[in-house]
Recover the amino acids of this structure.
């Protein structure tokens, strides 16, 4: 017999009594028994994206250990088997089921808010997507120095290496996640001016000829006599990669290009060798889930192998009118009773609620 007890079965003493499990239902059904309700009508599961065949989790099976620091209990239910059964924990290992649901060690699904600003009764089983959609590149950023002592040249797209002073290469992603080489060539026009040309191999373009150079964008840079950038004329480079949709890529020269914890200065024209200090392009290919992370506010994010991350929800914390009437099921795990009263929902860091801490040493 299942030793777990439904929240709506009580005996004369006011404690929960073992009884028949309630009928199965949707993932967040029968939360009325805990003073909550299903997700608000029309409220989607944040970030859950279907990618063809049945979704399944491909990330690490290792649990992410978390604990409540301060007041409150992380809430989980036995949905969809026995949706009215709930556990209230202050310390647990968060895992991801093959279907993508966040679960505790007993296989109960963790409940939370699907939007950061939600703190009311609209709680739902949190679900982690197995895949991240690709994102097309829309911006390139460069920090570099262009040597004004270089010879003045006239650029020829048919012979870019022979007619440009310098070049750099980046990878841009199309809308379906394929990466393509994009070359930027720079040539000195004299008078503290340089121009750049954005070149792509024709074989990468819709209707293009492999091996041919196609100029998809160009711009000009005007420098002050001191070598600092005065003005950039940089219209977006618009193109259509083969098999994808049209996209435009903006070439930018910001005051700082940030990569990781480091920032690099803007483009300059100092009397020094040409050098690219930093370059970056946004966009990414499709990603596969690697791990989950939980922060102090209870926000749960999925990290993908393409370097992106996606917040899928925020853990809910429950409080009770009489927490001394809770029944301890296991270490750091409790069950509600009639005497404890119904849970009062809230978010980590909110009024009367503690924060979430990751415990590296907990298994």
């Amino acid at each position: 017999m299942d030793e777990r007890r439904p929240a709506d079965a009580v005996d004369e003493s006011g404690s929960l009594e073992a009884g028949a499990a309630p009928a199965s239902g949707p993932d967040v059904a029968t939360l009325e028994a805990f003073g909550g309700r299903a997700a608000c009508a029309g409220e989607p599961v944040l970030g859950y994206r279907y990618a063809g065949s049945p979704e399944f989790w491909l990330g690490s099976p290792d649990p992410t250990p978390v604990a409540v620091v301060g007041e409150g209990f992380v809430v989980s239910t036995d949905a969809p088997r026995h949706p009215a059964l709930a556990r209230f924990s202050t310390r647990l290992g968060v895992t991801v089921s093959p279907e993508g649901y966040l679960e505790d060690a007993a296989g109960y699904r963790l409940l939370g808010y699907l939007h950061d600003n939600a703190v009311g009764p609209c709680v739902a089983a949190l679900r982690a997507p197995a895949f991240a959609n690709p994102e097309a590149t829309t911006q390139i950023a460069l920090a570099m120095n262009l040597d004004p002592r270089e010879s003045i040249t006239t650029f020829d797209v048919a012979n870019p290496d022979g007619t440009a002073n310098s070049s750099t290469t980046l990878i841009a992603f199309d809308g379906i996640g394929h990466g393509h080489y994009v070359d930027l060539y720079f040539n000195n026009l004299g008078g503290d001016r340089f121009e750049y040309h954005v070149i792509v191999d024709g074989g990468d373009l819709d209707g293009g000829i492999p091996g041919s150079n196609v100029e998809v964008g160009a711009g000009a840079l005007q420098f002050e006599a001191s070598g600092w950038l005065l003005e950039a004329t940089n219209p977006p480079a618009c193109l259509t990669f083969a098999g994808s949709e049209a996209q435009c890529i903006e070439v930018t020269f910001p005051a700082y290009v940030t990569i990781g914890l480091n920032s690099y200065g803007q483009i300059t024209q100092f009397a020094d060798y040409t050098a690219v200090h930093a370059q970056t392009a946004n966009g990414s290919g499709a990603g596969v889930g690697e791990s989950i992370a939980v922060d102090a506010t209870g926000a749960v994010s999925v990290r993908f192998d393409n370097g992106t991350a996606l917040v899928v929800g925020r853990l809910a914390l429950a409080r009770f009118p009489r927490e001394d009437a809770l029944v301890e099921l296991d270490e750091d795990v409790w069950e509600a009773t009639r005497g404890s009263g119904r849970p009062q929902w809230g978010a980590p860091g909110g009024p009367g609620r503690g924060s979430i801490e990751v415990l590296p040493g907990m298994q």
Notes: Helices lie at 160-163. The first strand starts at residue 64 and ends at 69. The chain is about 0% helix and 40% strand. The two ends are 28 Å apart (CA to CA).
